[in-house]
Amino acid sequence: MEDQTRHNALRLLKALYEHHLGEREEADALAVTIVPEHHDASAAGLEYGSQPYEQAIRWLLDAEALMQDEAFNTMYANDTAGVPDYGLAFKITTMGLTLLRG
Questions:
Q1: CA pair distance 93, 83, nearest whole angstrom
Q2: How far is the C-alpha of 38 from the C-alpha of 55, rounded, in Å?
Q3: What confidence tier does 80 reach under pLDDT thresholds 50, 70, 90?
Q4: CA–CA separation, 64 vs 61, rounded Å?
Q5: Residue 73's Cα: distance from chain center in Å?
Q6: What is the maximum alpha-carbon separation in the chain?
């Protein structure tokens, strides 16, 4: 199960990077807020909001490949029903970039 979660997480990380960051320099990529969408989950072979998707997001947070964008999450938390406890928005970290490079 852990291997599948890791595999899903790395595919999701790649999809997030490609969709939201594209050809940016790594230093610029660290500052970009990412709000995952259905397209990102689908590109990773996951269903947005499904248990495997949730496990992948949590794996990426636990591995410090993603970090919560506290400012964004605080700004929108009170306006959105059903926000996951990990928030809606993230930033890819240096560890995330390292994982993407393999």
A1: 22
A2: 16
A3: low
A4: 5
A5: 14
A6: 38
Query: pLDDT tens-digit profile of 44-78?
Result: 999 999 999 999 999 999 999 999 998 887 777 66
- Which one-letter amino acid corresponds to residue 69? D
* 71: phi then psi, degrees, rounded to nearest 5: -65, -45
Separation CA 2–CA 67 (nearest Å): 20
Cβ neighbourhood burial of 95 (10 Å; 0-12, 13-18, 19+): middle
Task: Tell me the H-state helices in the chain.
Answer: 2-20, 26-29, 38-43, 51-62, 70-77, 94-101
User: What's at 43, amino acid-wise?
Assistant: A
